[in-house]
Amino acid sequence: MHKPVYIKDFLAAFEQVVPQALAYEWDAVGLQVGDINTPLTGVLTTLDVTEDVIDEAIEQGINLIMSHHPIMFKPMKKIDVSSIKGRMVKKCLLNDITIYAAHTNYDRVDGGMNDRLADRLALVNRDVLV
After folding, report:
1. Which residues contact 6 (CB under 8 A, 6 or more apart)?
2. Which pTM value belongs to this model?
3. Is the pLDDT of residue 7 over 70?
4. Where does residue 79 fall: left (phi above 0), alpha (psi -120 to 50 degrees), or beta otherwise?
5. What is the C-alpha to C-alpha distance for residues 33 and 70, in angstroms, rounded to an integer?
6. Angle at Cα 75 formed by Cα 102 and Cα 79, nearest 5°?
7. Is 81 helix (H, G, I), strand (E, B) or coil?
8. pLDDT grade for 113, boundaries at 50, 70 and 90
9. H/E element holding 119?
């Protein structure tokens, strides 16, 4: 019988490759919603978290959504379930779904988003823009 892999173990391995320290100070990377102390059932990756993405995770039995863009750039002052974000947070919590964002840290890491985009565009003279 296999020992379960927990979400926190998966994220620790991910952060060895894509450390949060690479993110810009203004960015909101890392855990957005959920409980990292639960066994991992699957990972869904997305550019943006939407209700459709959360529904897909529920349908597929996946409990970790890895998003490029955070659903919360600024802390929420209230969770109003009549709002889209409030509804998404509620749906995640009721279905034990964790959301993790890797934004500017994934942009900046070697081999990350910007390098992949530059490769797809066949760019040769690459330099960091500030």
Report:
1. 36, 37, 38, 39, 40
2. 0.89
3. yes
4. beta
5. 10
6. 115
7. coil
8. confident
9. helix 113-120
**Phi, psi angles (nearest 5°) of residue 64:** -135, 120
Q: Where are the beta strands (DSSP E) in the chain?
A: 30-33, 43-46, 64-67, 98-101
Q: Cα angle at 29 between 88 and 115, to 5 degrees?
A: 115
As a residue count, the chain comes to 130
Helical packing angle, 84-94 and 51-60, nearest 10° = 10
Confidence of residue 73 (pLDDT cuts 50, 70, 90): confident
Q: Is the pLDDT of residue 22 over 80?
A: yes
Higher pLDDT, 4 or 1: 4
Both tokens of 32, joined, read 């957005």
- What is the Cα–Cα distance from 128 to 130, expressed in whole angstroms? 6
